[in-house]
């Protein structure tokens, strides 16, 4: 049977970088072909070549056995290639139907045919068994629903090949199940699916074939059946990572962060929790349960309507991030690109941003002190490359995340809130970040960890609070925590005895 896609001996170089070297990829109709690799391994470059964003230096692309030159993204779509990127490419102010049919809107004499538009979008949603109103404004949907709309938009063009790039990076394990149903439905429809993810368990659950890339080279392609996560990690990083989420046992001290009855109308209600020195406390729950909203209120990004926050026994009335920082709280946000960094600024400028007032006198910044601080943080956190004048947006996702953490560690916080600290980073960077978290806990920092990746929460937390619809539904000790127990609490069901 002729493959829907063959990429043969694909090579691509940029100034000073060999991004891809003789990479092969075969995707067949009705098959999920997963691609894994660390950030910088070449996954995105390979897919951008398939999408027509880049042209390969060498190699050939065959569609249904015919050698083809893809001149650009529009040409790729015309040839039946659908791309679903990690960053959603939707218009929040348009309806669901308008987003799904964007680029293929039914019209007559220049006027949109509203009935045909809605019916066409509804047919696509029905194919996915998705209970989403096609007339709803996209911005009113949850992240998981928006992700489904993004895939539906690609599916509406009746592609032969669909590329899904980190489709579950913003979803909890529970929310991801709806997306997996859609992937399996598309596979049953005979679509060739290329699936890129750092979540190795879902790669093994969904994948038929797995290709591992490392440093721009194809390390191995083999059936997913019989492959283990440990083998994939070894192939991806060139070494064994026996524990992706290492847990360091450290002495637990007195309560540092105490939150009582915290309420923000419409977001969460009567939230009480505490974190002690050296303790890592997980905050779990489904997407939309209010985890990020609680973190933002504690830090001062959003104003609470009721409740109290204390740090080391002192009342905190943080109404701005500056006040939260002054109280000894640091917050690493879930969206590093939007809220965590200034992408075009240097590593040095990003790290020094929260502490500029401490780096000089009378409004003048001491540049030597600023450079010294940046070098210390870069060395401590292992940012690579360790060039403090380098723009942050030139770094891999894992190293960008290290810069965000470094920025807030420069404030010497008593409480560190980490919101999705390993989202979208590869397994090597994930292990590095967890080593950093363990070292901070060992130094006595109180850590509140939010993650949609349940194995991460279970592996590193000393205790876990679970949120359901804006309320704490359970507090679970480490010894009693497992996936079933947390998910019962997250979905509002009684925790098994």
UniProtKB/TrEMBL annotation:
Keyword annotations from UniProtKB, A to Z: ATP-binding, Nucleotide-binding, Repeat, Transport
UniProt-listed InterPro entries: AAA+_ATPase, ABC_carbohydrate_import_ATPase, ABC_transporter-like_ATP-bd, ABC_transporter-like_CS, P-loop_NTPase
GO molecular function: ATP binding
Cross-referenced SUPFAM superfamilies: P-loop containing nucleoside triphosphate hydrolases
Pfam name, any one: ABC_tran
Domain ABC transporter: 5-240, 250-494
PANTHER family listed in its UniProt record: CARBOHYDRATE TRANSPORT ATP-BINDING PROTEIN MG119-RELATED, GALACTOFURANOSE TRANSPORTER ATP-BINDING PROTEIN YTFR
Name the record gives this protein: Sugar ABC transporter ATP-binding protein
Organism whose genome encodes this protein: Leucobacter rhizosphaerae
């Amino acid at each position: 049977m002729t493959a829907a896609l063959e990429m043969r001996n694909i090579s691509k170089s940029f100034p000073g970088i060999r991004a891809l070297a003789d990479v092969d990829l075969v995707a067949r109709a009705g098959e999920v072909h997963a691609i894994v690799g660390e950030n910088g391994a070449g996954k995105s470059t390979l897919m951008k070549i398939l999408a027509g964003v880049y042209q390969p230096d060498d190699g050939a692309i065959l569609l249904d056995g015919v050698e083809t030159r893809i001149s650009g993204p529009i040409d790729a779509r015309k040839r039946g290639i659908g791309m679903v990127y990690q960053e959603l490419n939707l218009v929040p102010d348009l309806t669901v139907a308008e987003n799904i049919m964007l680029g293929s809107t039914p019209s007559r004499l220049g006027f949109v045919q509203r009935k045909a538009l809605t019916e066409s979008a509804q047919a696509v949603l029905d194919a996915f068994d998705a209970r989403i109103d096609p007339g709803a404004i996209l911005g009113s949907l949850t992240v998981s629903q928006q992700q489904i709309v993004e895939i539906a938009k690609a599916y509406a063009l009746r592609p032969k090949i669909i590329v899904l790039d980190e489709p579950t990076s913003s979803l909890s394990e529970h929310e991801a199940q709806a997306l997996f149903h859609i992937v399996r439905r598309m596979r049953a429809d005979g679509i060739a699916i290329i699936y890129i993810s750092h979540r190795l368990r879902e790669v093994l659950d969904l994948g038929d074939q797995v290709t591992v890339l490392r440093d721009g080279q194809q390390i191995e392609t083999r059936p997913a059946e019989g492959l283990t996560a440990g083998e994939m990690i070894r192939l991806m990083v060139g070494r064994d990572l026996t524990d992706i989420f290492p847990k360091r046992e450290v002495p637990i001290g007195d309560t540092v962060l105490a939150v009582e009855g915290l309420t923000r109308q419409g977001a969460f209600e009567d939230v009480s929790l505490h974190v002690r020195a050296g303790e890592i406390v997980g905050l779990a729950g489904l997407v939309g349960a209010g985890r990020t909203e609680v973190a933002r209120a504690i830090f001062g990004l959003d104003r609470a309507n009721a409740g109290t926050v204390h740090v080391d026994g002192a009342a905190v009335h943080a109404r701005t991030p500056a006040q939260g920082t002054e109280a000894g709280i640091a917050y690493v946000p879930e969206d590093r690109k939007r809220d965590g960094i200034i992408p075009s600024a240097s590593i040095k400028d990003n790290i020094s941003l929260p502490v500029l007032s401490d780096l000089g006198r009378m409004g003048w910044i001491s540049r030597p002190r600023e450079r010294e601080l940046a070098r210390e943080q870069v060395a401590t956190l292992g940012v690579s490359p360790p060039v403090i004048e380098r723009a942050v947006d030139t770094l891999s996702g894992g190293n960008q995340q290290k810069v965000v953490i470094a920025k807030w560690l420069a404030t010497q916080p008593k409480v560190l809130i980490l919101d999705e600290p390993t989202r979208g980073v590869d397994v090597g960077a994930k292990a590095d970040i967890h080593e950093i978290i363990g070292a901070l806990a060992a130094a006595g920092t109180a850590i509140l960890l939010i993650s949609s990746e349940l194995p991460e929460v279970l592996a590193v937390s000393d205790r876990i609070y679970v949120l359901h619809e804006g309320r704490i539904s359970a507090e679970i000790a480490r010894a009693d925590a497992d996936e079933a127990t947390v998910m019962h609490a997250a979905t509002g069901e009684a925790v098994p005895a």
